[in-house]
Amino acid sequence: MSVYENNIVPIKISHLAEYVAKVKRISKDDALVYIYVNPMYEKLYDERSKWWYLSTEALYKEFETMRNRQKSSIPKEVFEFYTYCLEKYALEHHLSGMRAWVMFKDSGADEYIINNYDLLHTQGTEYVLEDIHHFITKRKK
């Protein structure tokens, strides 16, 4: 990606955050979270796709499409189990839900829990939380 294009993406993100905040009637900080957690965000820096050429409105539609696709991809019972693990982990480690969520995302623990639902949901809470902690700890090293 050229220096010029590298400088366009942050400006696009700023414009997109303002647009998201307005359309969804949320704060600009919440709009940034909406952007950063969407898989579409990483594509903005993909030189081959050139997503940064889209208008703010078109980019927002792409983010919404990706978000809707992502929402429907996890079955309800798997999502409930994931949320249960996230909240229990946060409580056990004296973390906010948001901090635990960031840890899960950064370490890949979210995907680990979702991908191993069939096995993990049959185990006790204490075992699952220890397993998640071990997974996160190993990923930090």
Task: Give the secondary structure arrangement, pairings included.
Elements: H1 3-24, H2 28-36, H3 40-43, H4 56-72, H5 76-92, H6 97-107, H7 109-115, H8 117-120, H9 125-140
Can you offer a commentary on this structure?
There is one protein chain. The chain is an all-alpha fold and 141 residues long. Helices cover 76% and strands 0% of the residues. The chain is elongated. The two termini are 30 Å apart. The model has no long low-confidence stretch (mean pLDDT 90).
Question: Could you say which structural class the secondary elements and strand pairing correspond to?
Answer: mainly alpha
Spatial separation of the terminal alpha carbons: 30 Å
- Please tally the β strands and state the result: 0
Order of helices and strands: HHHHHHHHH
Record keyword descriptors for this entry:
141 residues, mainly alpha, 9 helices, 0% strand
Summarize the structure.
The protein has 141 residues and is mainly alpha-helical.
